[in-house]
Structures are given as C-alpha cells and as structure tokens.
C-alpha cells in the first residue's frame, strides 16, 4: 500500500481528487463512473482482464471491454486496461481448486475481492496516480475522523458486504462505493436516462470464470473425483446405499439440484439434499428431511479471523451469516482452536459448509469474517463407515 497523504482523499475537494473506477462493461460499474463524474471528481476507468478464456475459446472479456470503452466515450473519460489473469490464477483459482480437492466449498468472490480488486487493481491504480478507487459494489463505506466502516448496502436484495468482509481495511480506506445507497431497480433507469449504451445489458451470473456453464463439467477439466457410495441418512431407507457418486468434490452441504436421485425405490417424491460428506470413506450422505440435524448445526469453528474493527474482546455477541443469501443470525463468538473462532448460534443456520465464510455484523456494520473450518456436532451422528 502506498503511503497515505497528509490529507485523506475524502477530505479533499472532488475536483482535486483522482478516482479510478473498476469498469467491467456492466451497468453497475458504469453508473458508478457516471455518479463520480457528476460529482465533479477526476474520473478514469480501468478494465481488468482476470480470465483469459471461456468454453468456446472466445474471450468474453473482449466484448465487455468494448462495452466499457463505449461507456467511457459517452462519459468522456479515459479507459485503461490491465491483465491480472496471472495473479488471478495464482491467488484465487489455485486456492479454489485446492479447496475443492480437500472437500471444501470455497467462495471465489470473497477471494477475488481480497486478492485482485482490492489488491492488484488498487496497486495498479496507485501507479497510475489515483487518490482512490471505486467499484460498483452494493455496500456502504463511511469515511470520517474516527476511521472507515463497512456497512451493508441500502438494497437488502443486493447487499454485497458479505463478499467484501475479507478485504484489508487499508484498501477500504482508499475506496468509494457510489451505489451503496442505491437500489438495483433504480440503477438501470439512471443508466438509461444518461444514455449509457449498456443500460439493458443482462447482469453476469455465476462464478466469474465459470459463468452459466455446467459447474461439474468445468471442475472435471481440472480435478478428478473419486467414486463412492451414496447412502441415506434418516427415514425408512436409513443407512441404505442407493447410488454411486462420481466424487465428493462435486457436491456441497445442503445441495439439492443435480443429485440425480429421482425414483429411488421405497423413497417418497420429496427432494433429496446432501447431508454430509465422509472424506474417509468417500461416502455421500443424503436425506429427504429438509430439517435434518446435519443441515441445522448450532455451531462452527473458523480459521484465524480478519477483523475490520479493532480485534474484539471475546466472548462477544453479534450476528453472523454463513452464506451470501442467508440472513444473519444472533450468535456468540468465543476463542477457537489454532487462533480461530468458535461461533455458537441462537438458532441453527442452514447447511454450514466448510470453505464458505462466516461474516460478522453489528446491525449494518460489518465487523469482519473468517473461513469456516468445520460445523459443530449435530444431534444425529452419521456413522463413519458402512
């Protein structure tokens, strides 16, 4: 991180402040740039190439770059480009593969923010002379004399503070989120009214380097799963082997879709869920009980936490969420093994998955996060072997 100036960027007049916006060619980052231009900042765009290929051998990023360039032409601002694909593969994708190989379910969006958007991109922007950076995230940052605080975005359906919880505070201190107080429904109207050519461009979905393609098929290009039995936990078929899976690495706790378990003799027509993965025996445990104890554990342990506040005195009460789309649940944080945390919930979150992140909040204030190492014991112990 470059040394701070004597006057923080947020204390300076907009016309004296150079902001480089991470432009993806989508509507959110484009409206981010628009708002900063309208506010009087010195604005420039920077397009990041983070992935070099897609399944058709055609680089989708090239089309996105063209869209970003068209937006910059309308806004009359310069556009830079930078290739971070080497850093992405070394610092995000490698960890992604290693985590799946170890039976975890990683969150590459959290890693991409920490390692690329608020590290590689930030440093590149600093070399270009930026006072600060901005992105189209739906989260709020408060910069004042007491420091910087990360808050949930105003739109509860789009809040992305979960994905930003592992970003170093030193990076957030040099960042603006102009969409933090905006609802997604309003962003497209803003882009349309401003004449931005991407106002009706569909949002990107899925993991950035996978997109909408078949996830298991993508993973098979890099990892080979080890086949094993699919066994039932609970109900009339308890303990029975009903199928064979292609590899535990292709499944995550709580997964419902893509199991291929329709028409099991003696089972109801209710959906199946992944209840547990036994890495010692390569057994995939499934259930038709939506409220199975394995999917409703009351505690978890984490790796060393990343705090966006002064490390709190433990134990501490707060709320935590264990997946992006889940609600935060009241909990107590205690010291855990190996410098990590133990989190005890007042009511169980659904489907705690090692490799995901537990993100901690005090109201809207994001306190920090930690990668989930393991879920606590359930009331029902699944046997270790057949």
TrEMBL record:
It catalyses: S-sulfanyl-L-cysteinyl-[protein] + uridine(34) in tRNA + AH2 + ATP = 2-thiouridine(34) in tRNA + L-cysteinyl-[protein] + A + AMP + diphosphate + H(+). Signal peptide: none annotated. Residues 217-287 form the tRNA-specific 2-thiouridylase MnmA-like central domain. Residues 107-109 are annotated as: Interaction with target base in tRNA. The keyword Disulfide bond applies. Keywords: ATP-binding, Cytoplasm, Disulfide bond, Nucleotide-binding, RNA-binding, Transferase, tRNA processing, tRNA-binding. One of its GO terms (cellular component) is cytoplasm. It is found in: Cytoplasm. Pfam families: tRNA_Me_trans, tRNA_Me_trans_C, tRNA_Me_trans_M. The record marks 137, 356 as: Interaction with tRNA. The active site is at 112 (nucleophile), 208 (cysteine persulfide intermediate). It is an enzyme of class 2 (transferase). GO terms for biological process: tRNA wobble position uridine thiolation. Gene3D superfamilies: Adenine nucleotide alpha hydrolases-like domains, HUPs, Translation factors. Residues 158-160, 323-324 are annotated as: Interaction with tRNA. Residues 299-372 form the tRNA-specific 2-thiouridylase MnmA-like C-terminal domain. InterPro entries: MnmA-like (IPR004506), MnmA-like_C (IPR046885), MnmA-like_central (IPR046884), MnmA-like_central_sf (IPR023382), Rossmann-like_a/b/a_fold (IPR014729). Its EC number is 2.8.1.13. The keyword Acetylation does not apply. It comes from the Bacteria. ATP binds at residues 22-29, 48, 136. One of its GO terms (molecular function) is tRNA binding. Belongs to the MnmA/TRMU family. Catalyzes the 2-thiolation of uridine at the wobble position (U34) of tRNA, leading to the formation of s(2)U34. This is tRNA-specific 2-thiouridylase MnmA. It comes from Salinisphaera shabanensis E1L3A.
């Amino acid at each position: 991180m470059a040394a701070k100036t004597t006057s923080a960027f947020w204390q300076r007049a907009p016309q004296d402040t150079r902001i480089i916006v991470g432009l993806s060619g989508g509507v959110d980052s484009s409206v981010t740039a628009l708002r900063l231009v309208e506010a009087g900042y010195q604005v420039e765009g920077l397009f990041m190439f983070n992935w070099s290929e897609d399944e058709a051998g055609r680089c989708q990023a090239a089309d996105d770059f063209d869209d970003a360039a068209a937006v910059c032409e309308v806004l009359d601002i310069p556009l830079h480009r930078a290739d971070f694909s080497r850093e992405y593969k070394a610092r995000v994708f490698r960890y992604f593969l290693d985590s799946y190989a170890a039976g975890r379910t990683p969150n590459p969006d959290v890693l991409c923010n920490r390692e690329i958007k608020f590290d590689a991109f930030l440093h590149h922007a600093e070399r270009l002379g930026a006072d600060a950076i901005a992105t189209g995230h739906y989260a709020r940052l408060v910069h004042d004399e007491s420091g910087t605080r990360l808050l949930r975005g105003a739109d509860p359906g789009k809040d992305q503070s979960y994905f930003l919880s592992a970003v170093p505070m030193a990076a957030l201190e040099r960042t603006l989120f102009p969409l933090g107080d905006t609802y997604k429904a309003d962003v497209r109207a803003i882009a349309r009214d401003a004449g931005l050519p991407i106002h009706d461009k569909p949002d990107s979905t899925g993991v950035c380097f996978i997109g909408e393609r078949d996830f298991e098929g993508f993973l098979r290009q890099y990892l080979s799963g080890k086949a094993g039995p699919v066994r039932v936990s609970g109900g009339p078929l308890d303990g029975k082997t009903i199928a064979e899976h292609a590899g535990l690495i292709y499944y995550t706790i709580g997964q419902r879709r893509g199991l291929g378990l329709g028409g099991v003799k003696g089972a109801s027509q209710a959906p199946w869920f992944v209840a547990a993965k036994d890495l010692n025996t390569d057994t995939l445990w499934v259930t038709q009980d939506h409220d199975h104890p394995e999917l409703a554990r009351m505690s978890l342990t984490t790796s060393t936490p990343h705090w966006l506040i002064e490390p709190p005195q433990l134990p501490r009460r707060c709320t935590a969420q264990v997946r992006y789309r889940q609600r935060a649940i009241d909990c107590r944080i205690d010291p855990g093994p190996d410098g990590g945390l133990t989190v005890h919930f007042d009511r169980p979150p659904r489907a705690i998955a090692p490799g995901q992140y537990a993100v901690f909040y005090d109201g809207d204030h994001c306190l920090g996060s930690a990668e989930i190492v393991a879920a606590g014991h359930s009331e029902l112990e699944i046997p270790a072997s057949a």
